[in-house]
Amino acid sequence: MKRDLxxxxxxxxxxxxxxxxxxxxxxxxxxxxxxxxxxxxERGDFVGATSSNSLKTxxxxxxYLQHADLGRMRESIRERARLLRVAPHLVSPIAFVLxxxxxxxxxxxxxxxxxxxxxxxxxDRSAGAIxxxxxxxxxxxxxxxxxTLVPGLDQGEWTGGAIWYDCxxxxxxxxxxxxxxxxxAAGAVCxxxxxxxxxxxxxxxxxxxxxxxxxxxEGFEVRARAVVLAAGPWVDRLLRxxxxxxxxxxxxxxxxxxxxxxxxxxxxxxxxxxVPAAFSDSDALLNKGDRLFFVVPWKQFxxxxxxxxxxxxxPDRFAVTDEDIERFLAEINAACPxxxxxxxxxxxxxxxxxxxxxxxxxxxxxxxxxxRIYDHAADGAQGLYSIVGVKWxxxxxxxxxxxxxxxxxxxxxxxxxRVAEAPLRGGEIDDLDRFYRQEEAQRPPSVSPASMRHxxxxxxSAAGDxxxxxxxxxxxxRELGGKFPVIAxxxxxxxxxxxxxxxxxxxxxxTELAAGGHPGRxxxxxxxxxxxxxxxxxxxxxxxxxxxxxxxxxxxxxxPSS
Length: 562
Hints:
Shape: globular
Number of helices: 16
Largest sheet: 9 strands, mixed
Distance between the termini: 24 Å
Structural class: alpha/beta
Radius of gyration: 23 Å
CATH class of the largest domain: Alpha Beta
């Protein structure tokens, strides 16, 4: 997977996708798998903005029952099952626990009925999953078991808990790169640090996009029969070229963030807590006056979120403030007796922007509930489409819907092409236990058992692509330090095969070096040493990259100035 601007500028494509978050990547993957000539350009780094903000859960939509939105539930259930099949090394079942009280909407009888409906609607929730990746049915437990699962709760207040199963993604960035690698293997072309500066148009026909190489500064054109905008919060900026007044705002900004903290509860289950909300969900039939947040176990940490807040600023100036974090910590401490989280317990903040339904005077956020595909032919731009996405779970389905619209135009009269489902890169595994045994038996001597398992967890059946570097140079098997057993070969692989340009690309998105927060200056210096030696950095460039990562991990901008 190489950054090839010459091919982008010199080849006409069926479709160019603008935006390298999970929605754009899934659209690219779907187009390439159908046999369309497809490319993608991203102004920063892949998975570098909103897609980097995630609670790392793939859910089947239990709470959509309160909206009686069975279609949305079925879509989520199907997509969750698909991810279990195509990426079993990254996606696995996880139990969720929600305490119950009283006899009303939060009581055992109602939750028992909800879990039964959830199981019935999700009758095929484990369809095609390999051994160990199936999702059990839901159940209700009593006070005693709840107290074991969630220590510290007032046993007089709670009657027990409802337990159901969804999925967790161990590494959302690696899942996105699995899609991207698979798209390139199917013939797609892509480039990061390639900013779209405008649309190519002839009358009302869109003919492609104008692009500026953010690394070299040169401009070029990418010609395509269709353009799909998957630029998230920046989609409206790209739509400004349409005839004045023709295109209303498509993405109304809101702020979303999750906290990475010390581990709060024992066990491998997530815990949900209700917090009274200052608004009612206008679409809900039941339970309108609260919102949920979850404490999710992840590695040696807890992920807590998602907190949603109004945001009215420039998407380029987005930030999660200390005030946002302190207020959320206060809510967590009020809802979770005994945890007593402080700012010092927060090792990382994952933030991004999501589309909300605008409502005058609202202090809380009501998110858009369905991803939307817009055909801008009615806006005077034939061949232009945009995606406004909502969540990781249904990104693939939204990408497919966008390419359905593209294909309907490019192949008039034909129905959307459907190709056989195939594992993503790294997902060619039919028995996890056997896979781990076989691969660990071939561990190179310079790779520790912990690092080997870490590689298999993140790269699955494609871990050999990284280990090939170790077999050529055993020194690349050494760990870099920090909170995760990342090895030097991962850095070289990222620069060689995944278009990593800056140190932050490797630290934050290609590896888990900074997944739990700042890994320490020593680990960063070792990483920069490996990457700099491979890419020929000067001592000054190496220090600039290190300084930038230090600043970025403190919450500053994610891309160093050139």
